[in-house]
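Slide 14.
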Amino acid sequence: MTLRILYTLVWHLALPLIGLRLLWRARRQPEYLQHVGERFGRYPDRVAGPVIWLHAVSVGETRAAAPLIHALLAAHPDCRLLLTHMTPTGRATGVELFGALSPRVRSVYLPYDLPWAMQRFLKHFRPRLGILMETELWPNLIEACHQRHIPLALVNGRLSERSARGYARIGTLARDAFAHLSAIGAQTEADAQRMTALGARYLSVTGNIKFDIAPPPAMDALGATFRNRIGPRQILLAASTREGEEEPLLEAFARLAGPEVLLLLVPRHPQRFGEVERLVQRCGLTLQLRSQAVPVMADTRVWLGDSMGEMHAYYGAAHVALIGGSWKELGGQNPIEACQMGCPVIVGPHTFNFKAVCEQAIEAGAALRAGAIEEGLKQALLLLDTPTRRASMGAAGREFAQSHRGATARTVTLLMPLYRGSHPQPGQ
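Slide 15: predicted structure.
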């Protein structure tokens, strides 16, 4: 209780800074100043009918939740699904993916983790079941659901060793949060063991829902369009890159890659598109933008992927991919999409956010690991010159992705008793 009081006090003291942070982030994304009332639990209208509420923080979690959302809507035809986010890009992705299902699916912001805001949110929407995607643990939210007897599940749960150490440092605050979850579907046995050590009780290993995301047929066609637009050149994709990774990559690319190789560079965050464009120009490399929708010129060295929701198509067009977020201590990005599209993968040394799936992909022969981004680039250039090995890695990736499907069905089975009002026993 003392820790929760201190935690809540810090949130209240930070309220003026929250407003400044929204203003600061709105410089690049004006959408941060829209729907501000929702961040404090104020909503214009309710959702009619029984509500299942699913929280997906941003773009990655929202896309990962797609198979589960469709499965829940099919399993419970009487319900509406409330989808909550923390970022404008996550919210926009929710509208993009599920707008055609309106009014059965609605996207809003989840409030900040203030007790009164969370209580207002729960009182307004009255969800029959709450679902958190991956690693979202908000102590006041979990406590509010516990007080209102709203079952709350964590699904597609993952917990890296680093995150587990962080939760352990806040002691009973984390233990109470894990203990009050009505059910947990962990991605791997290792994730389950780390959560159990932190107090989780109702836990099952259900696998990774992201394996169940079927590449949209339109992405195959778009990938083929990209290849036609580029021509016969070799395509090296740098996918979901983060700040501090592009500059050393571009410098190494300028030194090591011949003109027959095109670098398809896709930053992780859209607000950085302009920044990365300027960085490419400073490195003296000729540049075109994907948004220009014109053929790529033969002397263009970098094609900047300044679009959202087309990563499957980028992987489909590429001959080999370097996965961003793994060359700095950022935890990496998920290689599943690349494997699904048969694109060989090279990851850096920092993949702690996706440790299990990266190690599994490497073991399956679908991915390689490099110690530094220049080393990764050299491995990628070698693969470009070794088509038989590249084809073998691509086939291994498709087989690897296919063999791990099924987590969505297991997760729906886990959630079914909670929706009906019953609860699992400890150890289940």
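Speaker note: The mean pLDDT is 94.
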